[in-house]
Structures are given as C-alpha cells and as structure tokens.
Write a structure and sequence with these properties.
Blueprint (H helix, E strand, L loop, with lengths): L4 H15 L11 E6 L4 E5 L12 H11 L5 E8 L9 H10 E11 L4 E5 H4 L11
Parallel strand pairs: 3-4
Antiparallel strand pairs: 1-2, 1-3, 4-5
Keywords: Hydrolase, Metal-binding, Zinc
Protein name: Cytidine deaminase
InterPro entries: CMP_dCMP_dom, Cyt/Deoxycyt_deaminase, Cyt_deam_tetra, Cytidine_deaminase-like
Length: 135
C-alpha cells in the first residue's frame, strides 16, 4: 500500500479515533480523520444511541469537530474500520462530505489488514445537491 506522509498520519489518527467509538448496539466501530486545507488533522468516531436514529457517524463527527475549531475546507478524509470489506461513507455522510470537500478531494477507506480503497468525492456522490443549487 503506497501512502503519503499525510495519509499515514491520517490513518494513525483514524485508528485512534476508532478505538474510542461508542458502538454497543452494532459493534461496528469506525474512526475517521481529515486533513484540513490549513494542514491540521481532526478526527472523530461513531457514537451510537439506544434511539438508533440519533446515532452519529465517525465522518460527520470528524467534520463537526473541525467546524467547531473554525475549519471548513478539507483535503482528504480517511475512514478506518476493522472489517475485512472496506467501508465507504453512508449516504448521509456523503452529503455532508460534499458540503466541505472539493469534488476531486480524496476519501480513503482502510482497515486493520492494511487494505486501502480511494474515491473522489464526486465518485461517491455524483450530481450532488450542493450550496450552489440554493441560488
């Protein structure tokens, strides 16, 4: 797996976030880390709730953490799980990703087996509804 220094740092942070995931119902732990346009790394994990609809995914928690810290533009997002099959973002996360990432930004899924798959934002959600559609 050929990875850049930034990607390596993101993987480490996503794996650390994964270890903090709160997933007592699904036991599907997810960690995410994003590189902001300003060169900072933010992370998040999934947080489940007994009222399942209130569960928040790692990707959205990661992005929200960055926004809380004043960051709103991102370069790369890494999603870490310990599933054999690499896990892309869910539909809700894809829509949130489109809000903050450029169409050609990299979204990467990795796992404990060192498997890696990448997509562009545009590949994950073609013809996305964006703020431009509100004008």
């Amino acid at each position: 797996m050929n990875i850049t220094a930034h990607e390596s740092a993101l993987i480490v942070r996503a794996k650390t976030a994964y270890q903090n995931a709160y997933a007592p119902y699904s036991n599907f732990h997810v960690g995410a880390a994003a590189l902001t346009k300003n060169g900072n790394i933010v992370s998040g994990c999934n947080v489940e709730n007994a009222s399942y609809g209130l569960t928040v995914c790692a990707e959205r928690n990661c992005i929200a953490q960055a926004v809380i810290n004043g960051e709103q533009q991102f370069e790369t997002l890494v999603i870490y799980t310990e599933q054999e099959k690499l896990t892309p973002p869910c539909g809700a996360c894809r829509q949130v990703i489109v809000e903050f990432f450029q169409p050609q930004a990299t979204i990467m899924a990795v796992n404990h087996l060192a498997d890696k798959k990448t997509w562009t934002v545009e590949e994950l959600l073609p013809n996305a509804f964006t703020p431009k559609d509100l004008i």
